[in-house]
Design a protein that fits this description.
Elements (H helix, E strand, L loop, with lengths): L13 H13 L19 H19 L3 H17 L1 E6 L2 E6 L16 H16 L33
Antiparallel strand pairs: 1-2
Helix pairs in contact: 2-4
């Protein structure tokens, strides 16, 4: 049986704690169980991930003349390495490097999504670093795509170009 995770709310906890206890009593009869409790931290949202790929990366790719899925993945790997650091390794005697971690896996390759706060800091890092190259990366405002393109003051944003 795979691991089971429960989120116990900060208030009105009694019913959920009783449900967890009932579940544990029925799980793997005759076997020892390990129960781990830790503070709940919200993991990055799909909206945050969509903003990274759909709001942050397009103006950078456009400015740098990049296109296609492969180059977008390479750009993502670049930002991961710049933010989390690089790890060197060898393949057939050739030195290579890869990001220390990703937004979904830790340094050892185990599943470990960034929290919403950690992901926001990663996005902020990309915005600040892209600005040093003269590229405007918008905030991940959910209303951004609803603003008509003609209402944007393009001259205000160095590096902004229309998508082809």
């Amino acid at each position: 049986m795979s691991d089971q995770t429960f989120c116990i709310p900060a208030e009105n906890r009694r019913e959920m704690i009783l449900r967890v206890a009932r579940f544990a009593a029925k799980m793997l009869p005759g076997k020892e169980l390990e129960i781990v409790c830790r503070r709940y931290v919200k993991k990055r949202t799909d909206e945050q991930n969509s903003a990274l790929w759909g709001v942050a990366y397009p103006p950078i790719m456009n400015h740098m003349g990049l296109s296609g899925e492969r180059e977008r993945e390479e750009l993502h790997e670049y930002w991961l390495g710049e933010y989390f650091g690089w790890v060197e390794y060898k393949i057939m005697g050739q030195r290579k490097k890869r990001p220390r971690r990703t937004t979904t896996t830790d340094e050892n390759g185990r599943k470990d999504k960034l929290t919403t706060a950690e992901f926001a800091k990663f996005y902020d890092f990309i915005q600040r670093r892209a600005a040093t190259f003269g590229i405007f990366v918008p905030d991940p405002d959910p209303m951004f795509k609803r603003v008509p393109a003609e209402s944007l003051h393009k001259e205000t944003y160095t590096g902004y170009r229309e998508a082809a």
